[in-house]
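Entry type: protein chain
Record version: 2
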Amino acid sequence: MVWKAFGIGLLLGLLGAVAPGCGAGKPACLPQTCLGCCDSQGNCQLQISTPPGNTNFCGNNANACTHCLAGQSCSGGTCTGVPDAGPGTCGNGGTCHGCCDSNNTCQTGLTAQACGKNGARCVSCGTQQCISQACGACAGCIDGSGACQAGNQNTACGTGGVLCVTCTGALVCTPNAGGARCAAPTCSPATCPNGCCQNGTCVNPPTAAACGTSGNACTQCPSGENCISGQCSNGSPDAGGCTFQSCLLGCCDNNGACQTGTTDTACGGPIGLPCQNCIATDAGTCQAGFPNACG
């Protein structure tokens, strides 16, 4: 009975905190009482997500309401989408949601040459970019809505504040000294037919640590397995037919082929010992000896 009475009292107390009493004022707009946003009059507005055209009040967690621009939607309490430049007018009583240029013409306010919002005078960002209608620095690229993206995705590629581009076909967003750009992958089935690709580098011959063929992505073989003909297997590296009799002066690679055993990617031997890939294992260069070994 005690706990029941306590629960009833707690419930009544909460109701009293959020419901106006007789002659009492309206409840304060607080995170405890408002899931939406607080307007300029201190009223709670619940337009957390709305379609375009009904975005006078956008926000959540009892933050100040935001008036979304024409063409935008309110999603999760945040204005999203590309704002319309018009129909908007500049001057007293104007309705421009972008910025007003020197001819009092409404612009979108999304370009570095004419950046701004809410009918303010357009400004030139100089060496900076126009990000969400305000000048700033963007290390990545600017998408169609004016937002700064990282610039390392195939759907939004670019650096230095350029307009984001989409990499199509076989092209991928590739970072380089000049910034990210769409380019053909450095390692591909065409450039690595007998090996596999690891971090853009062709591993040939493949190893148990980087196994694959036909330019596909390398995989690590489970413990105890070898990479034979580009596939992880429980067989021995000699399963392809390379033996000490057939490869007396060289080494046997993971594809079962006899190699000279003197290169950095196939180091080892003689008498058909397993080849080592000095580059893939970061083990130096191939050193002549008995046997040849990375070092």
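Comment: The radius of gyration is 33 Å.
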